[in-house]
Amino acid sequence: MLIIGRADAAFPVARAMASRSGAGSSPLVAGVLSTARSGRVTDRRTALAARARAVDQGETVFVAFGLESDDEAGEAAADEAAILAAVGADQVWVVVDAGRKAEDTAAWVSRLSAHLSLDAVAVIEAGSTASPETIDELGLPVGWIDGSEATSATMAGLRPSLTDRANRSS
């Protein structure tokens, strides 16, 4: 699974997904990310090797692809991510911050989708905005929200649980 987003968001989401799935190892990293605890995917060869290891171990491999900023979803970064996805990523998820302006997020996701086939959205900071439903305008199912699997494929469908969560933390 390829998880692409800002460097400060992609790895934590991938790590949480890997942990929840029972994957035995830390997510691999790509793009601007590097960490001493994770292997690095740099090209088609290393991506294929990672996939082969995961198949042998019967696990899902998670690759956190970090961009320096939302604005970096340009040609080079998107092309590199597209190469990794073409190797056989079963799913490509984009990490979006619900607190960012809807128009900025939509433009960024549009630039990525010009190079990648995006499968789902992992939402962060859902509680930081009064209008998290704007994420639904991206036209992608919501699969992850603030550290957990989403219980609905839309932010509108998640509204009751978000409201309950906000009320409990008050």
Major sheet strand order: 2-3-1-4-5-6-7
Taken in chain order, the helices and strands follow as EHEHEHEHEEEH
Largest sheet: number of strands, sense, barrel closure: 7 strands, mixed
Low-confidence stretches: none
Terminal Cα span:
35 Å
Q: Structural class, from helix and strand content?
A: alpha/beta
- Shape label: globular
Strand runs, count: 7
Residue share in β-strands: 15-25%
Tally of helical runs: 5
Estimated radius of gyration: 16 Å
Helix content, binned percent? 40-55%
Overall mean confidence score, pLDDT: 84
Overall description:
With 170 residues, the protein is of the alpha/beta class. It has five helices and seven strands, in the order E-H-E-H-E-H-E-H-E-E-E-H. The chain has helices spanning 7-21, 44-57, 75-86, 102-113, 155-169; strands at residues 2-6, 28-31, 63-67, 92-97, 120-124, 142-145, 148-149. A seven-stranded mixed β-sheet has the order 2-3-1-4-5-6-7, sandwiched between helices. Helix 4 (102-113) links the parallel strand 4 (92-97) and strand 5 (120-124). The relative contact order is 0.15.
Provide a concise account of the structure shown.
With 170 residues, this protein is of the alpha/beta class.
What is the fold's blueprint, element by element?
Layout: E1 2-6, H1 7-21, E2 28-31, H2 44-57, E3 63-67, H3 75-86, E4 92-97, H4 102-113, E5 120-124, E6 142-145, E7 148-149, H5 155-169
Parallel strand pairs: 1-3, 1-4, 2-3, 4-5, 5-6
Antiparallel strand pairs: 6-7
